[in-house]
Amino acid sequence: MPNRLGAAASPYLRSHAGNPVDWWDWGADAFAEAAARDVPVLVSIGYSTCHWCHVMARESFSDPAVAAYLNENLVAIKVDREEHAEVDSTYLAAAAAFTGNLGWPLNVFVTPQGRAFFAGTYWPPEPVAGHPSFRQVLDAVLDAWTNRRDEVERNGAAIVDVLGRQQAVSSPLPTDFGPVVATLEGLEDATHGGFGTAPKFPVSPVLSFLVARRAPLGTRTLDAMAASPLRDAVDGGFFRYATRQDWSDPHYERMLYDNAQLVALYALAGRAEIAEGIAHWLGTMQLPGGGFASAQDSESTVDGRRVEGFYYSLDAASRERVERPPVDEKVLTGWNGLAIEGLSVAGSVLGRPEWVAMARRSADFLLEHHVGGRLVRASIGGVLSPAHATLEDSGMLASGLLQLALATGEVRYAEAARRLVDAAIAAGDPFGVPDGADPVLAAQGLAVEPDPGDGAHPSGLSAMASAARTLFTLTAHEPYRAAARAAMERVAAPAQRHPVSLGAALTVMSALAEPVRQLVVVGGDPELGRIAREHRGVVVSADQSRAWAAAGFELFEGRTAEAAYVCEDFVCRLPVTTPQELLSLL
Questions:
Q1: pLDDT tens-digit profile of 1-28?
Q2: Under 8 Å CB-to-CB from 358, ≥6 apart: which residues?
Q3: Cis peptide leading into residue 105 (ω within 30°)
Q4: Structure letter (DSSP) for residue 243
Q5: Do the beta carbons of residue 104 and residue 50 sit within 8 Å?
Q6: Are residues 433 and 451 in the same domain?
Q7: Cα dist. 541→89, 247, 341, 573 in Å?
């Protein structure tokens, strides 16, 4: 049996390389094999720090009898959802027709043409409390494939038809965000903080909206999370979610995307100690080459067994004596963009140049290895993933590079961001993916509009709109603002109805509704620089200001005298040279 996963760019796929299941990686060859054999396909999707993915791998995919049955009757494809985000979102949407309990592992049974006809998440090796075993599910799937093929084909075609008809309807952008904040206040858990009951997630994008609006609900929620078991008080990072309403009993995986957003939010909310702990953990995730690893596992190896949460139950001294939970060293372009942005903002606001330096190392790595003829979605140890980059990758990276440019004064990062935004505008209306959709999905007619929701992190649409809006504030180039507005009009109505799910979009809409306020300090006055950074301004030398102006960033045109320049919609006050004068203008 060939080992197709041993050299994969994904640690998750590599972890399955030794299974007796004859796994295929994502690609057209697996579907061609299924068509030639006239068998259905199991698309099994997970990620390396997913607890129940590990459990199902141990219980079912490592079982020789189950594997033999799978190999004889199906073609099995293993997918890392973080590497192939477009594949994951497409099959999540299809799986919603079969189960409301969406999550990972996500196991979808599809025809050789890629059309889903049954799906679920974790299935145990034996029936438990009314839940069928994985073998029983396989038997039912094969019975349907063999004896009710017409029904299988009709169901698969119907789901494809529904997915193809899901298109956003544009609506005017809101100008009054008071009702949105009131809706969120009505969703608050008044006892424990956060939103809803259980499980509880950080939902950083909506917290970003609340912090930007200076709504007390934002800081209240951040404080509740910081005081809860969701935060690792020893190493500093936040876990992915808590299983209980009071934020206790967390699932202990720690994700780069959560902590990348939270480090900036706690800095902007004035919670420097919490931000410092998160930045410390992010530092442990930065790989020697400069990129950030994507996640840290929830499980540790204890006496030869993998045990969830053991490491995190120990104090600092005890942790020094045991093995640290493994890290998924896959470098994802989009998530690294979030880390670049979070550390640039937090480092600038709190005066921590070493955090900005961490962001710079990641940016330099990505610009050298992931940005070139095509944008690379992921890499590990120098191995580039064949997965297509998504709008999430270009949008998050562009937004991060812009914040790094503002934190360092180096225009080259802003120029790189502008190239990414220009390419997205050229590829679609308002934004598209320059390299197009995943080719396998496209060939199967499954390349649908990406999910615009901002759940755990900004969607590609929101991230790119944010970058375009920031570019407008630096260039006065109206097409950037127009593209951002057009993108946000597509989600304006659902964002007001379901604000927890579209927080990043609301943040962009809120910024678009406000006058463009700009602050530039030229020169080395440390107090003027401190005030500017606290107010999200940019500090540059005279030479840097000339470089920005020469590169077409109109905000810096003629700004070479050492002074502070306060502008609104590109109309600037007279420059000032003392901290007192600057504070009076702000």
A1: 788 999 888 999 999 999 999 999 999 9
A2: 279, 282, 283, 286, 339, 343, 347
A3: yes
A4: S
A5: yes
A6: yes
A7: 45, 46, 22, 20
Q: Are 345 and 475 in a shared domain? A: yes
CATH number at residue 49: 3.40.30.10
Element containing residue 539 per DSSP (H, E)? strand 538-540
Instruction: Quote the pTM value.
Output: 0.94
Residue 561, domain extent? 517-585
Residue 285 lies in a domain: yes
Nearest to 438 by CA among 394, 390, 406, 475: 390
Number of domains observed in the structure of the chain: 3
Residue 563, in any domain of the structure: yes
Q: Torsions phi, psi of 539, nearest 5?
A: -115, 125
- Whether 387 and 286 map to the same domain: the answer is yes
Residue 165's Cβ-side half-sphere holds a number of Cα atoms within 13 Å equal to 6
Task: Please name the helix (run of DSSP H) or strand (run of DSSP E) that holds residue 407, with its range, or none.
Answer: helix 391-408
Is the pLDDT assigned to residue 307 strictly greater than 70?
Answer: yes
Domain boundary among 465, 485, 512: 512
Phi/psi of residue 255, nearest 5 degrees: -105, 140
Domain shared by 127 and 251, yes or no = no
Helix residue ranges, H only, 526-578: 526-534, 542-550
Are residues 133 and 126 in contact, defined by beta-carbon separation less than 8 angstroms?
yes
pLDDT greater than 80 at residue 200: yes
CA–CA separation, 116 vs 474, rounded Å?
46
Alpha-carbon distance of 76 to 11, in angstroms, equals: 18
